[in-house]
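Lab intake sheet, docking and co-folding queue.

SAMPLE TYPE: protein with bound small molecule
LIGAND NAME: fe (ii) ion
LIGAND FORMAT: SMILES
REQUESTED OUTPUT: full 3D complex as C-alpha cells
PRIORITY: normal
SUBMITTED BY: R.K., bench team

The fields below were copied directly from the construct record.
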Amino acid sequence: MQTLAQSPANVTVISDADKNETLIMPESLHTTPSIQIVDDQAANVLNGTLEAKAGARAQELEDAQFEMLEELARNAEFRDNDTGQHIERVGQLAGLVARAAGLPEQRCELIRQAAKLHDIGKIGIPDNILLKPGKLLAGEVARMRFHTIWGAKILAASRFPVIQLAAEIAMHHHERWDGTGYNGMSGERIPLAVRIATLADVFDVLTHARTYKNAWPLEYALVEIKSQSGRRFDPELVEIFLSDRFQPGLSCLQSLG
Ligand SMILES: [Fe+2]
Ligand SMILES: [Fe+2]
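RESULT FIELD (auto-filled):
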C-alpha cells in the first residue's frame, strides 16, 4: 500500500508499506496535466455510468407501473369480454393507424401502448350496469360515462409520458368529431392520439362479440366506419383506415381473433 507525504524540499515521499521501501519523487512528476486528464476522463465515464444506471432504473419503474395498470385494464375488460384481447387489439390497431397517418415511430409506439388503457375506468362500473344486456336507464348511462373520468383519475398521477397519454385517451375516447360526445370536444381540439384510439376502439367493438351483441362481419363494420366519417370520426383518419394500403394490415389484425 502506498502513502504520500509532502517533503520540505518540494518533493513527494512515497512509502510503500508492503514492499518496505521509500521512493522520493519530484513534485512535478505527480502533478502533471496528463494525470488531470485521466481524472477528468474517469469522472466522465463515472458520470456516464451513473446516468445510464439512473435511466435504466427509470425505465424499469415505468415498465413496472405500466404492467400493473395494463393488468388492471385487462381485469376491467374481462368482465364484458371473455377473451380480454380487446385492449391488445385496440393498441395494435391504434399503432397501425398512427403509422399509416405518418406519425414518427416513437409516437406510434407510445399511442400503441397508451391506447390499451383506454377503458381502465370500467373497473369502477358495477356489473349490473356494465353487463346489462338491454338499454341503459338515464342514471345508468351517467354512471357508465363516469368510466372516462375514473380512468383519467387512475392514470393522471403518473409522471411517465405513456401513462399521461393514456390518461388523455381514457378521458376523451368517447368524444366525437362533430362535438356530440361526452364532453362536447370537437374536431382537431380532440388530440390526434385520442381520435386514433377512438377509431380503433369502435372498430374493434363492432367486429367482436360482447355479452350484449354479436360480432359484425368486416364489410358491415367498414360501411359503419365510413358512415361515421365527419360525425363520430376524423374524416382524414377514416380515409386512411379505408384506403387499400391499410387493408392488408387490418386483415392481418383481424385474423388474430
Ligand atoms: Fe370507453
Ligand atoms: Fe374499448
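REVIEWER NOTE: The first strand starts at residue 2 and ends at 6.
SIGN-OFF: pending second check by T.M.
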